[in-house]
Amino acid sequence: MISAPVITIDGPSGSGKGTVAGILAKSLGWNLLDSGALYRLLAFAAVNHGVALDNEALLAKLAAHLDVQFIGATDGKSARIILEGDEVTHAIRSEGVAAGASKVAALPAVRDALLQRQRAFQESPGLVADGRDMGTVVFPEAPLKVFLTASAEERARRRYLQLKAKGDDVSLSGLLDEIRARDERDTQRAIAPLKPAADAIQLDSTELSIDQVLERIMSEIALRDIAG
Ligand code: DC
């Protein structure tokens, strides 16, 4: 059996990869894996169940049994997410949950427990997978791997505008500090650190619009003839 093709999009938070992955999946009519949501869901569930964010064995057990439904399969981050019967679509997007996700994501047993769950998203006609280690660990055979970056300042600015638009009271310098701390944890961890796969195409979105990033990716897809 020929397995469904995968396009991986890895990079730090705020690089635009979530938006790009969502639009790409929609326009190709492919499935979408927002792997960061799985780590966020685990951190959220752990807090609900009173499990400490450094209790590796219990967290791995929780990860293996996480009762999650993604409703609206190919519509990216706007898909509704149901955890243990409750809608948590917006709740898991907070900065607090992001910080917890970054902590549980550093634990090897947790990453292991989530591996098969992530690979199960590789279904026909194809998959766009967004995360940190999609190209290096989860889908090393993917025919197109993209590593999307942007400067920390630009990523903080984007996040600031997003949160302000939602009416949240946030400080730009606080967000920049948080982004730097998360980058440090995500790139320096011993297991599956954030880094480009050797065969990834690297794009810096600091000065590029989402449309320009999409254009570059679409031309790579055409070049490789992977979307039929
Ligand atoms: O992409 P995001 O902000 O939703 O990810 C939340 C956290 O999960 C982030 O700090 C890093 C971690 N993560 C990871 O380690 N591996 C992935 N494939 C996706 C996310």
UniProtKB/TrEMBL annotation:
Which amino acids does the record list as binding ATP? 11-19
User: Per the UniProt record, which EC number(s) apply here?
Assistant: 2.7.4.25
Give all residue intervals belonging to the Cytidylate kinase domain.
Answer: 7-221
GO MF annotation terms: kinase activity
**Keyword terms, alphabetized:** ATP-binding, Cytoplasm, Kinase, Nucleotide-binding, Transferase
Please, which domain of life does this record's source organism belong to? Bacteria
Q: Which reactions is this enzyme annotated as catalysing?
A: dCMP + ATP = dCDP + ADP; CMP + ATP = CDP + ADP
Can you tell me which residues the record assigns to a coiled coil?
none
Compartment annotation: Cytoplasm
Pfam families, A to Z: Cytidylate_kin
> Known HAMAP family for this protein?
Cytidyl_kinase_type1 (MF_00238)
List the PANTHER family.
CYTIDYLATE KINASE, CYTIDYLATE KINASE/PANTOATE-BETA-ALANINE LIGASE
Protein family membership: Belongs to the cytidylate kinase family. Type 1 subfamily.
Name it: Cytidylate kinase
Q: Which organism is it from?
A: Pseudomonas kulmbachensis
